Amino acid sequence: MPDIHGNIEGIRKSVLDEMKTLYDLQLEPEPRLVKRWLGRLGPELFFQWTALAKADAGAKFPDRAPGAARWEQVEALARQILAERPCLTLRDLEADGNDALARGLRGPAVGRALAALPQFAAAHTVAAFFGMGAEPDTRAFLHEVLAAGKRLCLPVCGPAQREMHMAAVTCLDSLVPGAFGIPQPQKGAPAVLPQAVDLCLVPCVAADKAGGRLGHGGGYYDAFLPLLRPGSTAVLCCFSWQLLARVPMEEHDVRLPLVATEHGVLKAAAFQGDL
């Protein structure tokens, strides 16, 4: 862990440059959340973040520093997780969105695979996402959903972890920057209940062929996916280079039945007899 003395502003700038909303995020010492933020940031930036947060908590509560104690628990848990080596990161994949472009991979190829699904043809309401960074560019697919006369909804994320709902979109030009700078529906856009979703597209940092998913660390989809009604279909969306032999899973993590890449849609091994 870096020494923060004399370097607090440098750490602050490094953290805020990487993730603008990170500074105000309160991370609880829970293995699932810590593991996913390690995967999102990598160990170096993760411990810079915790060092800054712990220092700020100590400044606010110099006598008791309850927040600082919590961050020490987070750091101890992170060191334990790293010692056991279950955490995969984008650095482990040795690729990012620019690498995908260099390899000739584009989001539209993933979108075409999704549009060929019989579940897409039958769907009335499609919950999707606006691809950012290393995620497939989904814009062409979003336009196709609207052109097909289906109801399109996109995530609206709140400031708290796991706070996400879907809202209807009729035109992509109406989207506004939301959490983490991701385009989302405007305030007041009609909410769409999870039970109304027929087809749900799910982003990830990495996935495996058993339907396991490594997310971005906020727990948004972990909270949302169990709310989908029986009979709806959730599909992991990623590039083939993001498919790994295994991603770390907790017992409450949700495996998904389908994985869409630029090469087509894979039926997850854990669901081979179900679809």
In words, what does this structure look like?
The protein is built from ten helices and 13 strands. The protein is an alpha/beta fold. The chain folds into two domains: 80 residues, no CATH class; 179 residues, Rossmann fold, CATH 3.40.50.10420. An eight-stranded mixed β-sheet has the order 6-3-2-1-7-10-12-13. It has a three-stranded mixed β-sheet with strand order 9-8-11, with no helix packed on it. It is globular.
* Rg estimate, integer Å: 19 Å
**What is the distance, rounded to the nearest whole angstrom, between the alpha carbons of the first and last residues?**
47 Å
Number of domains as seen in the coordinates:
2
CATH fold annotation of the largest domain:
Rossmann fold
Supply the CATH architecture of the largest domain. 3-Layer(aba) Sandwich
In short:
This protein is of the alpha/beta class and 275 residues long. It is built from ten helices and 13 strands.
Write a concise keyword list for the protein shown above.
275 residues; alpha/beta; Rossmann fold; 8-stranded mixed β-sheet; disordered N terminus
Topology, please?
Layout: H1 8-18, H2 31-41, H3 43-60, H4 66-84, H5 90-93, H6 97-102, H7 107-115, H8 118-122, E1 125-127, H9 139-147, E2 151-157, E3 164-169, E4 176-177, E5 183-184, E6 191-192, E7 199-202, E8 206-208, E9 213-214, H10 220-224, E10 233-237, E11 243-244, E12 258-261, E13 264-267
Parallel strand pairs: 1-2, 1-7, 7-10, 8-11, 10-12
Antiparallel strand pairs: 2-3, 3-6, 4-5, 8-9, 12-13
